[in-house]
């Protein structure tokens, strides 16, 4: 199994625990809890800021001395309702108690203390259509750069319909060369509907030094340390993914693959 494809460690508890050290990079961390009703999770944030995303189910969330109460309303991510999310600053802590079975994502990146803990969704998160034809997908931009809700983290959800492609045409953001491009590491947490489905993701550089194509199952995470990273889902299945990005600058500037940029130019002319 490629090192870029991370399978969940089990079906309960903290099933993903990706850190910069385990990923071999410098910024992005991603954790995922699968909790039964009545179970709880808690962590110190340390030198990272955290965005908690209730992927599915409901939980009572507290953090940095604040109680946010019971959050969450979609029992399946494929209901496509906007997610309930909470920002927790560095140098603090958070806790969650599941009030139904729930799936809780923990998105992290380096930050300094100072921001206030706050709820950042579902209010303020709009449903955006992107692309054309078999490249159509739907976005919930949870914490992109137009929302001043974090120091480093960029977080978004994407729904890719049956038979469609996403993160396409292939693009990369692996050079610290603003404004042309920003260096951003990225994780993809994939879900499939029905869950027995599969999808594909290719991570590749233009010089061929990295070229990995992975079949992803429901619950897998793909690491994107550099290069282009399109994904697709076969007919009959729908794909969801939660993206976490971070780097030295909280801006998303990318460049399309030169061989395939004509598709973007055609569709956006």
Automatic annotation (TrEMBL):
Molecular functions (GO terms): 5-deoxy-D-glucuronate isomerase activity
EC number: 5.3.1.30
Keyword Secreted listed: no
Major enzyme class: isomerase
Gene3D superfamilies in the record: Jelly Rolls (2.60.120.10)
UniProt KW Protease keyword: no
Keywords for this protein: Isomerase
Superkingdom: Bacteria
Protein name as it appears in the record: 5-deoxy-glucuronate isomerase
């Amino acid at each position: 199994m490629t090192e870029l494809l991370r399978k969940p460690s089990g079906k309960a508890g903290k099933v993903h625990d990706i850190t910069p050290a385990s990923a071999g990079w410098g910024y992005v961390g991603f954790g995922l809890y699968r909790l039964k009703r009545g179970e709880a999770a808690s962590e110190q944030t340390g030198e990272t800021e955290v965005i908690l995303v209730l992927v599915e189910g409901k939980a009572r969330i507290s953090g940095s001395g604040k109680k946010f109460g019971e959050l969450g309303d979609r029992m399946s991510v494929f209901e496509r309702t906007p997610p309930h999310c909470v920002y927790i600053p560095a140098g603090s802590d958070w806790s969650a108690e599941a009030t139904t079975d729930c799936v809780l994502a923990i998105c992290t990146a380096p930050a300094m203390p100072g921001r206030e803990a706050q709820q950042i969704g579902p209010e303020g998160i709009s449903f955006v259509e992107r692309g054309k034809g078999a490249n159509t997908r739907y976005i919930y931009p949870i914490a992109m750069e137009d929302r001043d809700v974090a120091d480093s983290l960029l977080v978004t959800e994407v729904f890719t319909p049956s038979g469609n492609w996403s993160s396409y045409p292939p693009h990369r953001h692996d050079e610290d060369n603003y404004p042309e491009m920003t260096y951003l590491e990225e994780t993809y947490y994939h879900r499939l509907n029905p869950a027995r489905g599969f999808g594909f993701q290719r991570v590749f550089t233009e010089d061929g030094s990295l070229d990995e194509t992975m079949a992803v199952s429901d619950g897998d995470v793909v690491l994107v340390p550099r290069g282009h990273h399109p994904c697709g889902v076969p007919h009959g299945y729908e794909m969801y993914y939660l993206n976490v990005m971070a780097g030295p600058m909280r801006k998303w500037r990318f460049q399309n693959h030169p061989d395939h940029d004509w598709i973007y130019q055609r569709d956006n002319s």
